[in-house]
Every structure is written in C-alpha cells, then in structure tokens.
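Chapter review: from sequence to fold.
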Amino acid sequence: NLYVASIFGSNLPVDFDPSGGVLELTGTDIDSDIALAKYTPEGKVLWAIALKGPGPDVVYSAALNASGTSIYIAGTYSQTLDFDPTSNGDVRTASALRDLFVAKYSTLDGSLEWANSMGGTGIDVAFDLAVDTQDAVFVSGVYQSVVDFDASSSGNISLTTAGGFDNFLASYNG
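The token string follows.
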C-alpha cells in the first residue's frame, strides 16, 4: 500500500480519490491543514483524514512501523490542531508561535492511536522521524527558547537554546 502525508489549504473541498469517486476533505481556511491517506498499489483510495486547525499546520515527515500496522507523522502547528478527526476529537493548543508534534495512526482505518505536542515560547518544528523495529520513534528538528520534550504531563525534560534556533533529537516509545 501507499501512504501520503501532505498539506492542503483553503475552505474548498479537495478530492483524494483519483478513480473518479469522491472522497473530499475540506480545510478550515486559507492556511494549510494536514491530510493523511492510504491507497492500494493500484491507486484506489482506502481512507483519507484531515487534521485541522485555524493556523498553518504542516507535516514534514511520515514513517511506518516495521509491522506496517501504524503510521507516524511529525511536523508543526500554530494556534490549535485537532489530531483526531472523529467526533471524539483530540485538540491541542500551541504554547506560543509554533509547537512540534508527533502522532501515531492505525494503517487499518486512519484512527488516532496517540498524539504528542511539545513546545515553548518560540518556534518549534519536527522535521524528520524514524521508527525502529521495536517501535521506538526518533524525532529531529529545531526549537527556539526553552522546550519540554517530555510528552507526559508529569515529567520535564527541558532544553534551552544557546540563542536563536538549536537542533534536537528525541526518542519516544511507540
């Protein structure tokens, strides 16, 4: 199968079904939202979901786990972003300008398995990720100011920049 993680914009519908059928996703406004879709090797769309928020939301990287049961995505968002397009919702609010995120979705139906959002007072972006055979997720990117990279609400693993932007590499249990 083929998986696509992309951005799309505007409040006009975008059809993710290339076969002549219709599977439309609609963004929230002129800023970018995130789309995640699964296709067969023949190009038939199996599912597509939209992650939406009022500000620009960008996915920079996607990776499958070794068993092919989950797809992970990483990127950045501003203001708020709903990581769960079902009626349950999982809305996160950015700490300041832009927060980085890592999220895990089922390849079966695109359902959210978990989402983590980290950020500080500046611009924080996850540019790349990789998943090992034990489902450990490695994320790299840049951050500004002070960021707590602990995805739990109880811990604190903070890094402070030397000024401007610094690079980070973090790992999370998948």
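Two observations follow directly from the output. The chain is about 0% helix and 60% strand. The first strand starts at residue 2 and ends at 9.
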